[in-house]
Structure formats: C-alpha cells, structure tokens
Amino acid sequence: MANRWLKIVSILLISTVYLISFTHIGVMAYDTFLKKGSFKPGTQIASIQLENMTTTQAEKELKEKVAVWFAEENLQLLINGEKVVINEFFFTFDFPATIERVNGGKENEFVVHVNQDVYETDLKSVLQDRYEAIDHELLQSTLIKSVNNMLSEKQYFTVEAFMRDDVDTIAAENTLTASFNQEDVQKVLTVLGEVKVPAQSQISFLELIGTTTNLPQESLNIVSSAIYKTILLTNFIVVERQTSESLPKHIELGYEAFIDPDASDFKWFNPNETAYTLTFELMNDHLNVKVNGAPFLQNYRVKFEDKTSYSPKTIVRYTSLLNEGEEELKQAGQEGLLVKVFREVYDGNDVLVESKQISEDFYPPAHRIIETGLINRMVENSMKIVDEGSSQSLDDDSTNSSTESNENNQSAEEQVNDTDENQLSETETSATQRDGLWETPTEALEK
Fold first, then answer.
1. CA distance 160 to 270
2. Do residues 234 and 172 lie in contact, with contact meaning Cβ atoms separated by under 8 Å?
3. Alpha-carbon distance 395 to 393, whole Å?
4. Where are the domains of the chain?
5. Model's pTM, two decimal places?
6. pLDDT in tens, 337-385
7. Contacts of 324 (CB under 8 A, 6+ apart)
8. Measured between alpha carbons, how far is 316 from 322 in angstroms, rounded to an integer?
9. Do residues 96 and 89 lie in contact, with contact meaning Cβ atoms separated by under 8 Å?
C-alpha cells in the first residue's frame, strides 16, 4: 500500500514538473525562434533603437535607417578640396548576422565590410597614381567606424590625413640656374641643412638661419629664391615675400624672394596633414631643391602672364665742370619689368582645376643719366664770364638750391669786364648772367 501511494505521488510530482517546465521552455522556445518582443530596452545598433522588435521588424528598421542615412550624404571624403560622397554601395551589410549577434540591452555594431570593388574603382579614378600613397586599412576602418556611429550630423574626412608615413617620394623639384659664388651659397646651405616642414606649420627663412650674421646677402637671396621657385610647384601657401628694387642678375623674373636679415623675411605654410623635408644639391651654377614626402594629390604648375618691360628715360644734366660738347655717362639705366605669377592646379587626369594669382612683381626702370657741358655765350657783346669760381655740378634733381645759385651768380658778377660807358648795374648784370646760364641749349643757339 505504501509503495502504491509513493508511486502515485511520484507520478503526480513528475507530471507537475513536466507541465511547469513545458510552459516555461515553450515560452522561451517561442521567444527564441520568433523573437517576439525579445530585444530588451536599450538595445540598439549604431544609433538605431530595436527594443521590443521582432527580428523581421528589426531587419526592416535597420535597412530603412541605413538607406536614409546614406541618402542624406552624411559621410563624405575630401579629396583635393572636393567632396566625394561615400554612399551605401561602398559597403556590404549583413543584416541577419547583425541581428543574430545582438547583445540585448546594449549598443551593438553592424556586421559590415567595405565593398573593395566599388572602393578601389571610385578612389583610383580620383587619386590616380597617388592611390598607393594612402593608408587604406586606416581609411577603411575609419569609414566603418563612422557607419557604426551613424551620427546625425555630416562627417568629413580629408584623404591627406590618411597618407602613409612610410611614403617618401620627391613630391616637387626645381632648379635655380645662374652664375653665382658657390662657396658663399654653400655657407648658407650648411646653416640650413635639411629643412623640416611639419604638418600644419609655418616656416620662416630668417628663423632657419638663426643668429648667423656673416652670411652674404646675395647668397641668402639665391637660396630663398630657389626655395620659392620650388614650393610654387606645391600646395604650400606663401605667407610673406618681398622683392628688391631691381631684379638681381642671378634670379629669374617672377622667382625672387628677397631676404634682409633686419627687415625682409620669406615665410610659407604647409597646409597638409603630413610633414615634408627640403633638401638641397649644389652643382656648377645650379642649385637644386627637392620637396621630399608624400606625393601631392594634384599637380601644380607656374604660369606667367602680362610680362611687360618699360624702357628707361634719358635724363640730361648740364654742368659747368665739362667743356661745351663734352658728355659723361653717370648711370647706364635699366629697363623696368612687370610680371604676374599664377599657380595652376591640375587633377590626376591633367584637367585644369584652378588658376590662382600668387604675385605681381614690378621693378621700376632706372633712368639713363648723362652730364654735358654748358653752352657759353657773350652777354650783349660787352661782357663775358672769365671764371666761374667754385660752381659745382648739378644735383640729381637737375637744379641747384637758390642759395647756391645766388652765390655762384654773385661770384660771376664780380668777374665781368666793365668796359661799356652805359655800364649795367650789379642787379642787371646778375639777371643777365642767370639768363645765360639757365636757358635751354636751343635758346642759346638761336641767340
């Protein structure tokens, strides 16, 4: 009897446990397979909320939100100053795998990969041969991270920021060719060494040479002008530059960067995300400058426009220190020059993108100056100048001051022969002599 009762109790106990377990396991199984309301509060992928959604609802929600986010062009890559929109086709989303890996009540990420075919095709078409200079692993991981954040505001990434650090090419190169003192130029190059140009930094030529004071002026100008000529082939920004009053014979028109340790500096700015190094090579009448670092994403060329020359005028000065008909060249004169310098920007397909004026260099003409002797004559056939005493040659302004003129005239008055009965007064004599001294050669000949 006792055994029978024990069997009944056992059967009832097992049945109760079975029914209770079946109920809970069934609910769990139902939630597991159908995912109805399975996502806990706080569950999200990127910024998309999924709480209390079924798998079907969650997958649909993810696809719609992703499509809208990309349609709003929230992800862009700046290449050569142009915006390249990164669209949905750059990526491959695995939505089922994303939902399967969801950790309830927490933030989750997409199962997403970069579509290499689209990525390479689009970027290579823009970057051309510079495509290999990009750290693509870093760039792609940055883009995927941006997708997983899915921020509501637009995100911009500059491709220059992803240049590989191990890339060291000759990004730009140019040569200044002229006859110059190589020893003096070498002194300047020794002080400079290799010029480091850090990313996002400004460089001053005077700061590079420091407190060195024994460097020849002409050699400073040669080196600074050679640097200027080279960085015109880059996207470096010229911050400060001066020219001298006349174009030096050893520097080409449009390329001068005048240096005065006390007043004139040459400064430029590196706007890139990578650093560069300037190196120099000195050969016979050649100074070669190289910009070493990651290749620029665009090509830069220099163009000159409106080249104009101005012939010098001839200035004639009359002086009593020379005999009549004698001439002396005091200044040979030099023509004036004008040129506008432009930097042209070309893309990877050699298509002109931009042309920007960098400078307008003007050198005024230096006039030709000739000194010639005065044309002397007798005053009314009764007077002559026998001695001009200490009268000096004319100044650069072609006239003497009134004080000097009066003194010379008075000296001349005292040396006039007094032989006429109707002798002129001292005042009249002075006035007559001034007319003879300062009249034009044409008037003198006519008289």
1. 12
2. yes
3. 7
4. 1-30, 44-162, 169-297, 375-446
5. 0.65
6. 999 999 999 987 788 989 999 999 999 999 889 989 876 543 333 333 3
7. 373, 374, 375, 376
8. 13
9. no
